[in-house]
Amino acid sequence: MSAFKKSCPGQNTAFLKDFNTNIIPCPKCGFEIEFFADERKVKCPKCYSNVFRVNPQIIEYKNGDIIYYDSEKSCLDWCGACIDKSDYTDIIENNKRIEKKKEDFKKLISLIDKSQKEVIEFLIEAFRKSINHLRLFDPKAFDVLQRENPDLFKKVRQYYLKFLENS
Fold first, then answer.
1. Domain count, the chain
2. Distance between CA atoms of residues 119 and 124, nearest Å
3. Rounded-to-10 torsion of CA 106, 111, 117, 121
4. Is the pTM of this model over 0.85?
5. Does residue 2 form part of some domain?
6. Half-sphere exposure of 63 toward its Cβ, with a 13 Å CA cutoff?
């Protein structure tokens, strides 16, 4: 767990309500990483990459547009006094990277014919699962799709290549 500094107004653990853990795969090596409820950044014990826990976004596709709804905020979204300054800076930079990914994803979806609901649904789900990945999508999502549904893979690939050409 992150070490609390004396200046953190939430440092009294009597007020922490959630001691649950979350496990997510490292986006670099796939090793399962455990996060406690108050942690946003952990170093992977296998490859030593910084891994960020990102609260899931609610993504809605409505009238041809992607709409994001944030989940609950934590004290790190406003303060950051409870962790090292370098960790807080890393978290803020990761949040900026995710905002850029969200904008890129909106651009990709805008290129897709609205009648291609299956393509859009796949991409939304792949984006949700890839939010912590450095790229827009984890390439494993496309590998699985290619094996399980080659026809859908061809459609998705066509739109994704078009997006990459326009970027």
1. 1
2. 9
3. -30
4. no
5. no
6. 1
Residues, the chain, total? 167
Residue type, 33: I
Q: What are phi and psi of 114, to 5 degrees?
A: -60, -20
- Do the Cβ atoms of 49 and 28 come closer than 8 Å? yes
- Residuewise pLDDT in 10s, the chain (167 residues): 445 444 555 555 555 555 566 787 887 888 888 877 667 788 899 999 888 776 656 788 888 888 887 665 666 665 666 677 888 888 888 888 888 999 999 999 999 999 999 999 999 999 988 887 889 999 999 999 999 999 999 999 999 999 999 88
Q: 140 near 128, Cβ under 8 Å?
A: no
Task: Report the Cα 104 to chain-centroid distance in Å.
Answer: 13
Please indicate, yes or no, if residue 151 is contained in any of the structural domains: yes
Cα–Cα distance measured from residue 85 to residue 91, given in angstroms and rounded to the nearest whole number: 10
Chain mean position to CA 4:
25
Report residue 118: phi and psi, to 5°.
-65, -40
Q: Tell me the residue range of the domain where 139 lies.
A: 13-166
Please return the burial class of 166, using the count of CB atoms within 10 Å of its CB with bins 0-12, 13-18 and 19+.
exposed
Secondary structure of residue 131 in the 3-state scheme: coil
